[in-house]
């Protein structure tokens, strides 16, 4: 399979995605480390699955990707972040470990995100297709955080 090259627009898009982790009370050095990690993972996943600028742009706009490559981009990122395991199934233990790390340095954000994660983990089921599972999980988080409501409440991932 031929890997797609990563364009400057895709890199800029990934930087915007990574801003979602720069919550107000996260120490700047930790936010910087997280941002670098997320950008690195995103770049790897763009190359691995060949996601397009449109795929990434949709995610930034809190819309679910519609193409197979866009959905598989989400799965790739989630697998690299251990939200999905190697088999493409939701890894609840790892998800809660990530939240526990967040809790240690940004309790306010943890209090906001934990109930959303609980609801999504209780309602999103594993599909035979890891790309669908990942996209369904992302959709649930967008919904729970009100990111999918046009002109609704401010999405917690908007900065």
UniProtKB/TrEMBL annotation:
Signal peptide residues on this chain, from the entry's feature table: 1-22
Task: List, alphabetically, the GO terms of the cellular component aspect.
Answer: extracellular space
Read off the Gene3D superfamilies from this record: Pheromone/general odorant binding protein domain
Its transmembrane ranges are none
User: What is any one GO biological process for this UniProt entry?
Assistant: sensory perception of smell
The lineage's top-level taxon is Eukaryota
Q: Which UniProt keywords apply?
A: Signal
Q: Molecular function terms in GO for this entry?
A: odorant binding
Q: Pfam families given for it?
A: PBP_GOBP (PF01395)
Q: What is this protein called?
A: Uncharacterized protein
Species the sequence originates in: Photinus pyralis
């Amino acid at each position: 399979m031929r890997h797609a090259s990563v364009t400057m627009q895709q890199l800029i898009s990934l930087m915007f995605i990574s801003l979602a982790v720069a919550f107000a009370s996260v120490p700047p050095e930790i936010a910087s480390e997280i941002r670098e990690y997320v950008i690195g993972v995103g770049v790897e996943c763009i190359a691995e699955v060949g996601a397009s600028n449109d795929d990434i742009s949709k995610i930034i706009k809190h819309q679910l990707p519609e193409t197979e490559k866009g959905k598989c981009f989400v799965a790739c990122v989630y697998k690299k972040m251990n939200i999905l395991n190697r088999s493409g199934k939701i890894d609840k233990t790892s998800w809660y470990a990530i939240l526990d790390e967040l809790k240690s340095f940004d309790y306010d954000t943890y209090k906001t995100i934990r109930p959303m994660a609980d609801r999504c983990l209780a309602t999103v089921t594993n599909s035979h297709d890891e790309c669908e599972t990942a996209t369904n999980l992302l959709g649930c988080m967008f919904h729970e955080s009100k990111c999918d409501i046009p002109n609704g409440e401010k999405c917690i991932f908007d900065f």
